[in-house]
Amino acid sequence: MTVSKINCNKLLLFGFFLTVSLSFKLLGADYYFHPRTGLDANNGLSPSQAFQSLAKIDDLNLNPGDRIFLAAGEVFSGSLIIQNFRGTPDQPLIIEPFGTGKMAKIDAAGQEAGVLIENASFVKVKKLHIQANGPGDTSGDIPMRVGVLIRSTRPGVITSNIQLEGLEIEEVFYESAGYQRGAAEVKTANGTQKYGWGIRLIANGENQQIEQVDIKDCKIRNLAHTGIKLTGNNQQSIRNVSITGNLVEKVGGPGIQMSGVKFVYVAENLVSHSGSADDSRKWGRGSGLWTWGSSMVMIEKNQFLYANGPGDSAGAHIDFNCDNIILQYNLSAYNAGGFCEILGNNYNCAYRYNVSINDGHRIKGENGAFQEGKTLWLSGYQGSKKPRKGPVNSYIYNNTIYLKKDIVSKIAIDNRSKGVLIANNIFHIEGESRLVAGDQYKSDDEMAGGLEEVLFKNNLFLHPDNWPKQALIQPENSRYGNMEFTNPGGMSLEDYIPQKVDLLRGIPIPFLPSDQFGLINGLNLEYDILGNLLGANPGIGAIKPIEKP
């Protein structure tokens, strides 16, 4: 063997070891925590040398690729705090259990948050059980209690690429059991007192920003206020958020709420019993989902069930100052406030291909209710200090709406609305229909004046009285008849497959006259709510009729 070949082989061998060495370095360190057998004096690098307290994380010099392992089946007290960490796409910080396959639990009683991620990037948190029931050792400067809080506080430093997966968050309350909120608190816009929340994203200061957050397959139950809440600023500082596959139930406020956001995808979530009042510490009011000051939000394939409260508390509603909010392919059922609610100063928003079952059953004046429940509500309300301004270019089409006989269908339409399309819907209303004022602190003008740019045609009603004769807009080219649903009153989408197809020829959905934009993903969809190909005939209602040979 020549000298040159020997030197070449040595160089290759050196390169191999260098690569392996760098690879190990890039993998990062693993830190183990055990609340019973660990000691903070340990090095934390193995289960036998585990740290004990979550506070020890503050002493670690965390690097990209590091992992924090919490002992499965154990209970940690306090708060897990990650601040100013900057990971990379290939080397995130991972926080998850180790051991038997069970979750690790964090009891954050008395803390601001069970998990706090602040001014950080590329962090993944998986399979933790978080509880924070009551104040414990708290102080007056803690403004709230949150299961997981993601926050931006440093101007110019973006909190980004955060993933929450498979978490269970429950029993999050600021006060001790037995605390009684005053009756007036539920009438405030969002609550004025201190509450417990599930997951919160906050970037509401100047030059603060949160981007690329994924919240999936989490279970959020039994807490004082909102299950998942996004709070950005007027520059829509929270962007590119995905909320998918989550269960939110029995929360005292809304199930999911977002303000000051842009580019949000909400899909395949089950939200049940939002606005719960089964604990005196809960707010007791809330839609399954609502947006405010938000843009480009797609809400599809969700279930919004049993929303409760004396006001709002629809399945999902669009509060004021929004644009391009699309609700499609959702099941909405037994929500006190109603099915379709679009408030003032909203642009190009839509409800399409949804099924609504017995929504809007609330009666004003009963059980403290200060608003009527409604089947459909277009409001001019855009805040108590601004003149009323109706929504612009509202598209409501191919929905299936079922109301049993003992529920009065109530309609509220502000005369300042501009651009209204109501087409290809099934209004299967077995009982009475009535025009009501919107009563959002001040009643809508539903009688005087006239709406501009209205297309209200080709809807199917059970009978001619399904639409109030006093309403400003009246349907044209309507159809009437019983679709003979497979199981009316049932809770599955398949219960609303229409059996009579001769009345169900739909019309293509056109642009409203002054609308130059339309809707995100286009006006005419390819599939119905069950995934059936629509073809040339979009049909009437959310489910394509079965064509008979």
Automatic annotation (TrEMBL):
Q: Which stretches are annotated as coiled coil?
A: none
- Right handed beta helix domain segment(s): 207-354
Q: Which Pfam families match?
A: Beta_helix
Recorded superkingdom:
Bacteria
Question: What is the protein name for this chain?
Answer: Right-handed parallel beta-helix repeat-containing protein
- In its UniProt entry, the species of origin is given as Cyclobacterium plantarum
